[in-house]
Amino acid sequence: MSLLQEYDLRNVFQTERSLLTFSGFYPRRDKKYSSLYIFSASVNLLCSYLQLLSMLGQMVVDKNNLSKLTDTLLFFMTHFAFLCKLTNFGYYRWHLLVVEDSLIDAVFYEISHTELLKSKVQSCKLVARIFRILCILCIIFYAVIPCLGEERVLPLPGWLPYDTTKYYYETVFFQLLSICISAYNNSSIDILTWKLITIASAQFDILKENLKNIFYKSEGEDDTKCIEICFKNCVKHHNEIINLVNSIEFMFSKGIFLQFFASVIIICFTGFQMIVVPIPSIEFTFLIMYLSCMMCQVAMYCWYGHDVMMTSDEIGQYCYISNWYESNIEIRKSMIIFWERAKKPVTLTAGNFVTLSLTTLTGVSNKQIKRVVYTTNIFVSFHMQDLGKHLLNIKSNFKNLQKLNTDNLVYFSDTTIVIFIFRCFATFVQRFLKCSTVAEMWR
Q1: What is the mean pLDDT of residues 175-179?
Q2: How far lies 22's CA from each of 26, 128, 236, in Å?
Q3: Residue 372 pLDDT > 50, yes or no?
Q4: Is 350 helix (H, G, I), strand (E, B) or coil?
Q5: Residues 442, 369: contact at Cβ < 8 Å?
Q6: What's the pLDDT at 369?
Q7: Checking DSSP bridges between strand 354-355 and strand 349-350, what pairing results, if any?
Q8: Measuring CA to CA, how many Å separate 337 from each of 84, 314, 322, 330, 333?
Q9: Dihedral through CA 128, CA 129, CA 131, CA 135, nearest 10?
Q10: pLDDT digits (tens, 9 = 90+) for 144-166
Q11: 274, 288 in Cβ contact below 8 A?
Q12: Angle of helix 221-276 relative to helix 329-342, nearest 10 degrees?
């Protein structure tokens, strides 16, 4: 038990457990402070769902305005994905206690390979720290953007059944609170999943080292029994790791699938907004930060899922590295069965539909770029239609310029406006061509 106290795997996600317990969503074994626990969860859910309904109402109001609609959809999908993940987490949260109990099993603790476990956990904690910094920067941008303009602008688009100018500061506080709740809980659920997957991946690495270091040549019955015990422990270790991965997939698979589905749409809308928003602006910087968070969120799921798949696929290879050919016939029979099982790599999926791997990540990225280009083409076609109408007006106006009088001065103002629109359109086409070039490179 001293080894368990020193290298307790449950302490790997201690921070996420504390954060989610504070927000009222992590399962607890005791009933202490139950009223505060329920109150915290109720406040979090109330703020989140009210903000979702507010953005849904804004989408109905702006249904005929493409630019405002995409801006609202960008934040709506992020919030919708978070609530879906939170609902999935709340539904399966009691299974986390089963996972914690399984992590106490002595088969997960090998004192000779603790440094291998620590190195993987430290790298995951570094990634989690970077992801949290990106989330904090996004929250800061949310809070700063309304203060930069002369007009009073809310941090998030949303329809509210009262005059927001009269209760401006109260509304800003409510929206910033909902943003903090979303980023706080969403990042905690993501990092908790990544750390659990990292534990499974590190255990596969430890298992490989154990299989490689077994010395199968025996000089007596005692050596043969010792070899059998070591090999059976490796088989048990392998089964327990597979059960751990299956538990992680059972709890988080549906939430990851919803996150993938929403992230594809979010990244498309973010790319579209980056084309429309002027580059030297605080809004463009915010969109880059926002896009980085979304890409990091999807990429890390694929990265750690790919790591589990690759480490489990190498189990059979490490068996061959040892001197297995010097073992007796009984151990060889057992090894054949184990090798057949190890031929199938352990994979994590999103909703039992998409395998979490780097191949999936590159495929999703290519599709996202193509959708951004496709959406941009639609936007260009809309502007081409408007531009054609203005050009027809110019043609009719220039025919009447020969009869110049005071009433014709309005034509000069119309022409000036059309020239301004044409210049804006030319700038937009230039950005679109750059985006198309990048898309071709990714293809």
Answers
A1: 88
A2: 8, 19, 36
A3: no
A4: strand
A5: yes
A6: 46
A7: antiparallel
A8: 41, 16, 17, 11, 7
A9: 130
A10: 876 766 677 788 888 888 888 88
A11: yes
A12: 10
For residue 362, is pLDDT > 80? no
pLDDT of residue 73: 81
CB atoms under 10 Å from CB of 106, counted, come to 10
Residues sharing a CB contact under 8 Å with residue 284, sequence separation 6 or more, in sequence order: 274, 277, 278
- For tokens 């990634």, name the residue: 127
Higher pLDDT, 387 or 34: 34
140: Cβ–Cβ under 8 A, 6 or more apart, which residues?
Answer: none
Asked if pLDDT for residue 270 goes beyond 80, the answer is no
As beta bridge partners, residue 349 has 355
Q: Which amino acid is at 146?
A: P
Q: Given the structure tokens 């202490």, which residue do they identify? A: 32
Instruction: Give every CB contact of residue 51 below 8 A, 6+ residues apart in sequence.
Output: 79, 156, 158, 174, 175, 178, 182
Let me know: does 116 contact 202? Beta carbons within 8 Å. Answer: yes
CB 290 within 8 A of CB 138: yes
For residue 137, the SS3 value is helix
The predicted pLDDT at position 194 comes to 92
Residues 355/359/360/365 CA torsion (nearest 10 deg): 170
What is 141-184 written as a DSSP string?
HHHHHHHHSSS---SS----SS-TTTTHHHHHHHHHHHHHHHHH
User: In this structure, are residues 182 and 85 in contact, taking their beta carbons and an 8 Å threshold?
Assistant: no
Identify residue 168 by its one-letter amino acid code: Y
Angle at 292 between CA 291 and CA 294, to 5 degrees: 65
Q: Which two tokens stand for residue 309?
A: 């798949």
Say how far apart CA 231 and CA 214 lie, in whole Å. Answer: 8
Query: Between the CA atoms of 399, 400, 404 and 405, what dihedral angle is there, to the nearest 10 degrees?
Result: -170
- Which of 27-31, 283-287, 375-379 shows the lowest per-residue confidence on average (mean pLDDT)? 375-379
Task: Report H helices in 62-108.
Answer: 66-92, 95-102
Region label for 154, one of left (φ > 0), alpha (ψ between -120 and 50) or beta (otherwise): beta
Confirm if 406 and 440 have CB atoms less than 8 A apart.
no
Question: What angle (nearest 5°) sits at the alpha carbon of residue 309, between those of residues 308 and 310?
Answer: 95
What tokens does 43 get? 């406040």
So what's the pLDDT on residue 416?
42
CA distance 224 to 220: 6
Other beta carbons within 10 angstroms of residue 51's beta carbon come to 23
Q: What's the N-to-C CA distance of the chain in angstroms?
A: 54
SS3 of residue 352 by DSSP = coil
How far apart (Å, rounded) are the C-alpha atoms in residues 130 and 283?
A: 22
- Pull the structure tokens for residue 323: 């001197």
